[in-house]
């Protein structure tokens, strides 16, 4: 509390970390304890010396300066050190200098360097910590150091793991195989006839992949929205008997791996599918392959996205003040008139939102097109084959990914615009005394007629998923019960050498559990912290910060996957093939969900409680721990469950990132589907879903959920689902 | 330069403090010194910058410009957690998930006091404040008045350099306000605390303060004791804001203020001027040839308030309820207590 303080504990911590990571830790991912920035810099890698030198200058300044945090030299030194670190890391690649100037300056750089290791990353982290400390001393984040550190570090992480890969991918679209700028190639790629062709509208030939994607997106969003509306009307506005069942149905897709529905459709309608065979015998026609292509994908997507549109529209319907409809009735309008003049206009923003949400999901969907596509290419699968197939063509994949990203962002932007402008529904806090108007009977029957086939279909699909894994061959209706499939996947032996796992699925299952268990708490922590920063802190660039996190939300999983391939298989951040890259991809894809849950929870909490804690001497971290976190436990629960479940079921991003050593359950199942081993795929999916439910129960036990309504909790999770 | 003794005596100093939010200026250059043990009230209409000034002292906002010293130390860049300022929030801001005792012990515990010791201390303060039996309750199980006292106890428990009250009575029943405000005043004096109090209620300000700082549009309009402000308002704004006032435009010539039908002694130079006369400083004489006429009367329970026309001006006059009622249209003469006439700048 005196003005003569030199350096305090927190700053000393960052400084100590910096010194240790440049002097004592291995700078590169490969290398022992001795290979620190200092020792390597003094031997044959002099480009590491500026970082080490600036580290010592900072330490020296701490010894002599009276008020270190406010010293005029602190920030310049820290920024110079960060610049030196980034310049050497990005300037010298695996095969020598990327920047020619560095090659002239350091002749030994010609032999190149590998990716950063523990020392390099921790040095970067420590420098960011010092930067945040210095900025806080100058009033950033109202002088609150913990908040300042969080902002700086989260911005750095988002830049590294969201924006840098996208930029790198964008750059790949404009370069040729050698990495040289090639605008001609870009023009060639983006005008390729197999992108924009319209032949399918005039002939029996197929359309371009962009046209296919849009066609699928619009059809799927239209059907899903219509069905979702019918469901929502039945639940909110009628005395329909199976309301609870309908609500329960809507939770299923959240825990369903994306291509399971596709597999079930093949089992039902594929060439040798149950219904196909039945129909063929009945009408004596040859079984066709009609389900592969647009029709099949559309069926699967409508089934998968209807619950999402249903929840959005149900929310809109329940938020409409019934007194408005009562007013219309007292003015003499008949039910149909009331519906068309009052209810319908109030519903329109919700319908637009539901449509756009389903459209975005359809654009990003990878699991269903890959399983059911046949010859029908969409952008997400085309990107996959451009990178994973025999012809590795990152430039082409990048171009396709940029188109997909562009389409998604336009839809995302439209959604924000639309909802921002014409959201009539406001929560006033007053109780709405009125009773909801029952639906006009005509509409009610139309809704039931639409919903019944959907419900039957859903039940059929999930029966197959539940049953299929435990009978010999569900596709040929051989219903002899068997545990053979499960045993193939999960056989084990409890012998003298302890437990031995033989099953083919164990590796992927264990990796999946590890990745989910590691990424869920990290996702939750970063998401909740970000929410707290955006909702409660006041710092320059807060709006841009919020916008950036939301943007990361809109990027389709396929694009994330291919961008990670483009960015992280070369130094300085060389992490492809590791489990870390899987964890990181989930953390930054799902973090916005935790953030939204956190922001919604924080909006309910009077911020003066946090201010009271601060005036009593608690800094940001203590206030967060003592006051904020105990009050937003339901949001923590939502974030944990959501990120855990998504990590177990997602396929689009991980399919690019899995390796032989670190395979994920979803990728493994997809491999089985490609080989036609449907029963095994289905059995594994069923096990996956059971494990998921068990884990959610476990999380609930650990976090302890407080009066979290099932419906509200799940609404939050689904409405905020990122594009898969 | 101030001498050392005087600086030692100051609890809070604002030196040219400015606070901007984007383009809006909430506090527009404040200079103010608050002495130890003093209760100073920031009074003003909403949006005048009084709450922002309070939050600047707490460290919940940092000044855009200027300096702020607490107990002699420049804290302009220190966050709230590194100051030692207790605050009683309008909504009380009690932590709903911990007991009353833990709420009160929070400050000492955070500052490193052992839990048992902090609890003992919190018990002492709660007993002293008359909340002895409620230690283990949750805040939601207390009445509004009890919650308010817990909030005060919590702010006192950290032994702050300064204690801040942000409209502490706004959530208290109208009936209880008088009682609670005198309790706050008594506690402040008992603990010898330097206190800053924010309110928009002028009567509350007059009742609790050693000094009042009236703010208007981010600036200080006048600083003074309650009596100063009421008896000698510096401007029409102050005269109007604190109590009721008759504001009259006229001219001063040779030490007398003259306006239509009025002629009272004032000090200061000759020229155009305006004066403020409090309604209770005008007495009404019933005389048939009085120059003024009663326009209307309003019964206020404790007194009568009459609108009186004098020439073209209308004056507000209050009269004890025990005096006979006056009828509209009745001619009256005005007797103005010259001590109640203030020339405005």
UniProtKB/TrEMBL annotation, chain A:
Keywords: Cell membrane, Membrane, Transmembrane, Transmembrane helix, Transport. One of its GO terms (cellular component) is plasma membrane. GO terms for biological process: transmembrane transport. It comes from the Bacteria. It is found in: Cell membrane. Residues 210-415, 509-699 form the ABC transmembrane type-1 domain. The chain crosses the membrane at residues 12-35, 47-65, 72-94, 114-134, 146-167, 214-236, 248-270, 290-317, 338-360, 394-414, 445-471, 513-535, 547-567, 573-591, 635-658, 678-703. It is a multi-pass membrane protein. InterPro entries: MetI-like, MetI-like_sf. Pfam families: BPD_transp_1. PROSITE patterns: ABC_TM1. Its main location: membrane. Belongs to the binding-protein-dependent transport system permease family. This is Iron ABC transporter permease. The lineage of its organism: Bacteria, Pseudomonadati, Pseudomonadota, Alphaproteobacteria, Hyphomicrobiales.
UniProtKB/TrEMBL annotation, chain B:
One of its GO terms (cellular component) is ATP-binding cassette (ABC) transporter complex. One of its GO terms (biological process) is quaternary ammonium group transport. Residues 12-242 form the ABC transporter domain. It holds the Pfam family ABC_tran. Keywords: ATP-binding, Nucleotide-binding, Transport. The keyword S-adenosyl-L-methionine does not apply. PROSITE patterns: ABC_TRANSPORTER_1, ABC_TRANSPORTER_2. InterPro entries: AAA+_ATPase (IPR003593), ABC_SmlMolc_Importer (IPR050093), ABC_transporter-like_ATP-bd (IPR003439), ABC_transporter-like_CS (IPR017871), Mo/tungstate-bd_C_term_dom (IPR008995), P-loop_NTPase (IPR027417), Transp-assoc_OB_typ2 (IPR013611). SMART domains: AAA (SM00382). GO terms for molecular function: ATP binding; ATP hydrolysis activity; transmembrane transporter activity. Belongs to the ABC transporter superfamily. This is Fe(3+) ions import ATP-binding protein FbpC 1. It comes from Roseibium aquae. The lineage of its organism: Bacteria, Pseudomonadati, Pseudomonadota, Alphaproteobacteria, Hyphomicrobiales. The gene is fbpC1.
């Amino acid at each position: 509390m005196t003005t003569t303080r030199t350096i305090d504990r927190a700053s000393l911590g960052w400084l100590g970390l910096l010194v240790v990571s440049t002097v004592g830790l291995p700078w590169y991912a490969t290398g022992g304890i001795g290979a620190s920035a200092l020792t390597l810099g003094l031997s044959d890698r002099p480009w590491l010396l500026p970082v080490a030198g600036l580290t010592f200058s900072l330490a020296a300044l701490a010894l002599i300066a009276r008020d270190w945090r406010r010293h005029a030299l602190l920030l310049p030194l820290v920024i110079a050190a960060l610049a030196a670190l980034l310049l050497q890391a990005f300037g010298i690649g695996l095969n020598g200098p990327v920047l020619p100037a560095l090659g002239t300056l350091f002749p030994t750089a010609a032999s190149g360097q590998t990716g950063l290791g523990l020392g390099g990353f921790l040095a970067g982290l420590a420098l960011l910590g010092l930067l945040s400390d210095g900025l806080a001393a100058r009033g950033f984040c109202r002088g609150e150091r913990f908040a300042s550190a969080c902002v700086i570090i989260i911005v750095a992480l988002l830049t590294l793991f969201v924006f840098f890969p996208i930029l790198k991918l964008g750059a790949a679209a404009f370069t040729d195989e050698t990495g040289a700028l090639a605008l001609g190639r870009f023009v060639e790629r983006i005008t390729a006839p197999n992108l924009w062709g319209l032949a399918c509208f005039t002939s029996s030939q197929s359309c371009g992949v962009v046209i296919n994607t849009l066609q699928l997106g619009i059809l799927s969003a239209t059907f899903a929205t219509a069905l979702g509306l019918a469901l929502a009307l039945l639940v909110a506005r009628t005395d329909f008997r199976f309301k609870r069942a309908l609500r329960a149905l809507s939770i299923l897709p959240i825990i369903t791996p994306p291509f399971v529905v596709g597999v079930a459709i093949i089992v039902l309608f594929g060439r040798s599918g149950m219904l196909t065979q039945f129909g063929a015998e009945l009408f004596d026609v040859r079984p066709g392959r009609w389900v592969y292509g647009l029709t099949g994908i559309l069926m699967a997507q409508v089934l998968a996205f209807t619950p999402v549109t249903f929840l959005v529209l149900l929310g809109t319907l329940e938020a409409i003040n019934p007194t408005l409809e009562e007013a219309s009735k007292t003015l003499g309008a008949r039910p149909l008139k009331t519906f068309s003049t009052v209810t319908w206009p109030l519903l329109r923003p919700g319908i637009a939102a539901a449509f756009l949400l389903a459209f975005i999901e359809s654009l990003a969907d990878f699991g269903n097109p890959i399983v059911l596509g046949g010859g029908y290419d969409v952008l997400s699968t085309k990107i996959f084959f451009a990178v994973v197939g025999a012809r590795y063509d990152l430039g082409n994949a990048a171009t396709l990914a940029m188109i997909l990203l562009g389409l998604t962002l336009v839809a995302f932007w439209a959604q924000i615009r639309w909802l921002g402008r014409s959201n009539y529904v406001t929560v006033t806090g007053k109780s709405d005394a009125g009773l909801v108007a029952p639906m006009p009977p005509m509409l009610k029957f139309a809704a039931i007629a639409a919903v019944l086939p959907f419900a039957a279909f859903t039940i059929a699909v999930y029966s197959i998923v539940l049953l299929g894994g435990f009978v010999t061959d569900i596709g040929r209706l051989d219903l002899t019960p068997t545990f053979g499939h499960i045993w193939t996947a999960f056989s084990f032996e409890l012998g003298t050498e302890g437990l031995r796992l033989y099953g083919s699925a164990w590796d992927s299952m264990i990796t999946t559990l590890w990745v989910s268990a590691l990424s869920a708490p990290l996702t939750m922590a970063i998401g909740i912290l970000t929410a707290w920063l955006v909702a409660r802190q006041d710092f320059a660039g807060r709006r841009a910060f919020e916008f950036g996190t939301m943007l990361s939300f809109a990027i389709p999983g396929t694009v994330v996957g291919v961008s990670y391939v483009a960015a992280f298989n070369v130094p300085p951040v060389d992490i492809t093939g590791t489990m870390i890259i899987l964890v990181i991809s989930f953390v930054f894809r799902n973090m916005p969900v935790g953030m939204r849950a956190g922001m919604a929870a924080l909006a309910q909490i009077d911020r003066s409680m946090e201010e009271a804690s601060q005036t009593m001497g608690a800094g940001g971290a203590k206030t967060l721990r003592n006051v904020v976190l105990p009050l937003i436990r339901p949001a923590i629960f939502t974030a944990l469950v959501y990120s855990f479940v998504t990590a177990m079921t997602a396929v689009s991003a991980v399919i690019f990132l899995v390796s032989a050593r670190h395979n994920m359950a979803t990728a493994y199942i997809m491999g089985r589907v490609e080989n036609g081993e449907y029963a095994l795929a289905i059995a594994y999916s069923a096990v996956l879903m059971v494990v998921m439910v068990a884990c959610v129960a476990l999380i609930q036990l650990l976090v302890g959920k407080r009066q979290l309504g099932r419906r509200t909790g799940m609404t939050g999770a689904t409405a905020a689902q990122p594009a898969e | 330069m101030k001498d050392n003794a005087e600086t030692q005596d100051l609890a809070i100093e604002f030196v040219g403090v400015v606070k901007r939010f984007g383009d809006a200026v909430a506090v527009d250059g404040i200079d103010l010194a608050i002495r130890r043990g003093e209760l100073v009230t920031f009074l003003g209409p909403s949006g005048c910058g009084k709450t922002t000034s309070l939050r600047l002292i707490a460290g919940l906002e940092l000044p855009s410009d200027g300096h702020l010293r607490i107990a002699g130390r420049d804290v302009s860049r220190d966050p709230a957690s590194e100051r030692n300022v207790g605050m009683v929030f309008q909504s009380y801001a009690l932590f709903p998930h911990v007991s009353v005792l833990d709420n009160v012990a929070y400050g000492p515990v955070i500052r490193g006091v052992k839990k048992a010791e902090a609890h003992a201390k919190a018990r002492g303060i709660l007993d002293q404040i008359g909340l002895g039996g409620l230690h283990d309750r949750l805040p939601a199980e207390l009445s509004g008045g009890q919650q308010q006292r817990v909030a005060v106890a919590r702010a006192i428990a950290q032994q702050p350099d300064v204690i801040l009250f942000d409209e502490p009575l706004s959530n208290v029943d109208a009936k209880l306000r008088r009682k609670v405000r005198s309790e706050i005043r008594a506690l402040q004096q008992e603990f010898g605390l330097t206190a800053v109090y924010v309110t928009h209620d002028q009567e509350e300000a007059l009742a609790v303060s050693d000094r009042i700082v009236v703010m208007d549009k981010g600036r200080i309009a006048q600083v003074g004791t309650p009596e100063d402000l009421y008896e000698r308002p510096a401007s029409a704004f102050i005269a109007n804001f604190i109590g009721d006032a008759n504001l009259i435009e006229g001219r001063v010539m040779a030490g007398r203020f003259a306006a239509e039908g009025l002629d009272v002694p004032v000090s200061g130079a000759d020229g155009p001027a305006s004066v403020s006369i409090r309604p209770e400083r005008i007495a009404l004489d019933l005389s048939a040839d009085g120059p003024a006429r009663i326009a209307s009367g309003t019964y206020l329970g404790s007194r009568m308030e009459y609108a009186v026309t004098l020439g073209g001006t209308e004056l507000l006059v209050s009269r004890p309820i025990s005096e006979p009622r006056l009828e509209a249209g009745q001619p009256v003469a005005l007797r103005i207590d010259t001590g109640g006439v203030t020339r405005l700048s």
